Amino acid sequence: MANESHTYTYPKTILNKGSGYLSGYSHTLNPYAGCSFSCSYCYVRQMPISLFRQEQWGTWVDIKQDAAKLLRKELSLAKRKGAVMIFMSTSTDPYQPAEYKERVTRSLLEAMVDEPPDFVLVQTRSPLVRRDIDLFAQLGDKVRISMTVETDLEHIRKQFTPEAPPIAARLKTLQLLADAGIPAQATIAPLLPSSGRFPKLLKPLVNRVCIDDYFMGDGSGGKRTRKIGVEAIYKRLGLEDWYKPGAYRIVYDRFIEEFPEEQVYISQKGFEP
Ligand code: SF4
Which chain positions lie within coiled-coil regions (predicted)? Predict the structure, then answer.
């Protein structure tokens, strides 16, 4: 994005204690603060990290320095206290455009290869994740890539997340992960209007799908999303029916025609380790 501000920061800690909402995780890990993808529905806009900042969400990214050094230290301490289950990331995308050059996420994964946590979920929507397949292979079943694919319709994606990577690039990345034997899931979250072809597109690529929406999945029963005003986009497109608590059933029913039911998870269950 033009005029985006990048700042190098020196955090004191990198591994944060997991909050109650993410069940099954002991820690969260955010290589960056802020996010260039700037999704219209991003609920981080309503969180302190964004509210206390003067700049608009999506226009700034803080790049955490010495992150791997901190992680190595904190991981070995945390492992002495119990199982270390990491969610990376909760309030940024670890494969931000800045990651091409900065490699903070890659350095964190290298630290995890040397000092493996019990589990790490890598949540992204970026094809850049494919660059680190060599490291995921070394983490084996301790890692799962969760690739956000909210819809199969590129014109819908462009309406809601114009700065995010194209859907085709994400599907291609899921294919590469599957070819390399890396555990991965397609995360339809938040679900956007999609076509009946969507399940058939994902079937050859994954054996795990997670479906979530604003009402189950924004941590506040949809209140945060309402404040952001994303409903206006649905209205503009004449697709209000997709902005309803029951809309996920349309997608769910389509998916269980194509996938075994036990491979299709709803909301929080789909993010669990
Ligand atoms: S990629 Fe995630 S963190 Fe970044 S703007 Fe989109 S929803 Fe928010």
Answer: none
| All domains of the chain in start order, with CATH | 5-271 (3.80.30.30)
Whether 125 is in the pocket of ligand 1, judged by its Cβ within 6 Å, is yes
235 class by beta-carbon count within 10 Å (0-12 exposed, 13-18 middle, 19+ buried): exposed
Ligand 1 centroid, distance to 62 Cα (angstroms): 14
Q: Which amino acid is at 262?
A: E
From the CA of 125, give the closest atom in ligand 1: 1
Q: Report pLDDT digits (tens) over 59-93.
A: 999 999 999 999 999 999 999 999 999 999 999 99
What is the reported pLDDT for 189? 97
Residue 131, judged by CB atoms within 10 A of its CB (0-12, 13-18, 19+), counts as: middle
Q: What is the dihedral of CA 54, 40, 229, 53, to 10 degrees?
A: -10
Which single residue is written with the structure tokens 């209140």?
A: 223
Instruction: Give the DSSP H or E segment for 202.
Output: helix 198-202
CA of 80 to the centre of ligand 1 (A): 32
Closest ligand 1 atom, residue 44 Cα: 8
Q: What are phi and psi of 66, to 5 degrees?
A: 55, 25
pLDDT tens for each residue of 129-163? 999 999 999 999 999 999 999 999 999 999 999 99
Cα→Cα distances 170→121, 183, 206, Å: 17, 15, 12
Q: How far is CA 241 from CA 67, 187, 193, 210, 254, in A?
A: 43, 21, 9, 21, 16
Q: Is 92 in the pocket of ligand 1 (CB under 6 A)?
A: yes
**Global pTM?**
0.97
